[in-house]
Amino acid sequence: MIMKEIIILLVGLLIMVLGVLIGVAFLTLLERKVLGYIQIRKGPNKIGFIGILQPFSDAIKLFSKEQTFPNFSNYFLYYFSPVISFMLSLIIWMLIPYYFNLISFNLGILFFLCCTSLGVYLVMVAGWSSNSNYALLGGLRSVAQTISYEVSLALIMMSGVIFIMSFNLVILTEYQNLIWFMFIMFPLSLCWLSSSLAETNRTPFDFAEGESELVSGFNIEYSSGGFALIFLSEYSSILFMSLFFVLMFMGGYMLSLLFYLKLVFISFIFIWVRGTLPRYRYDKLMYLAWKNYLPISLNFLMFFIGLKIFFL
Prior knowledge:
- The chain is mainly alpha-helical.
- It has one domain.
- It contains 12 helices and no strands.
- The model has no long low-confidence stretch (mean pLDDT 83).
């Protein structure tokens, strides 16, 4: 019986991974289309109906290209860091409180923080192992940026945890039946959204791969499969952070069309920001994290703790 359950669980996980990969494929297509229309041009529209097969064409091209690597790189770490990065970005998807057959986490929020913290090391190792100055600088920037914004993310999450007095995401959903947390902590939800942009290295916080000064940052030496895996893990993280925003502030997980529309809308905001805003200055990015978001999230945390004590 246990063996049967394990097999069902593994099949469920496999279906979930396939779903995430297909979601990522069409998220890249959506991004290219939206950026195209923002810049008053057409996006991909040649392959298949209105370019719908473009992501699969790109995937085949990238994975069939010749794998090159720098002579002076630390080959083992250079080769495996994108693979592990991609695996980590898929493992984190187990956290979502699906209503069927998969894993239920009592400490889901802690699991999320552990997985996002591990992602820092992989970007750093990917940058360092290439043995290139540009890649190393990109890796170092990414580490400083991600660690800074994880502090504000953790504190914002703590406000939600104090509200529901649990780390379980299913309970988070139950508490939002009558009112979304977005209306109760609106400033925190905006801080969370911009912190997620910084956490996933997206414009206007894409310092890990600043083309103007670092050529392409930590992934400069990667081509073909390695680049594709870094690309996939980045877009999988974007999709996950959008989903987590919906879980935290917009009513939680529901098996309904509205839930998926909310998810697509938040993903669309990630792309919209990329098409609209220029890159920040690096010192301003750090200033924003430590001088603005940290005090705001700490003040809200104290406020919610006070409320909880008062009403208990």
